[in-house]
Amino acid sequence: QVQLVESGGGLVQAGGSLRLSCAASGRTFSHYVMGWFRQAPGKEREFVSAITRSGGSTNYADSVKGRFTVSRDNAKNTVYLQMNSLKPEDTAVYYCAADLNLGSIIYSQEYKYDYWGQGTQVTVSS
Fold this sequence. Notes:
Oligomer: single chain
Low-confidence stretches: none
Distance between the termini: 40 Å
């Protein structure tokens, strides 16, 4: 069992930055590929980014490439999402998720992830 707690959301103006954190407790954090997803009002949850167990490989949705950066600190059991040049369309609840994946494949499908946090709201004003 893994417990995930996101933090760092808030209200920011367009063009601004936020850094989300997701702290994990429970089973060995380094065994998990970690992902970020988001859900905007009235829309389905979508993949944002993910990072392999060692942090050596990452993947991003096209909509955030070049603006968002995912990273992790296995010593702190934490994964981060640095979000720069934020746009109003980035407004959503952001979730982190853990995939018990002993390989190096990064999945963008929700069903591949075993554990989810409760989400943190990010609102970008125009």
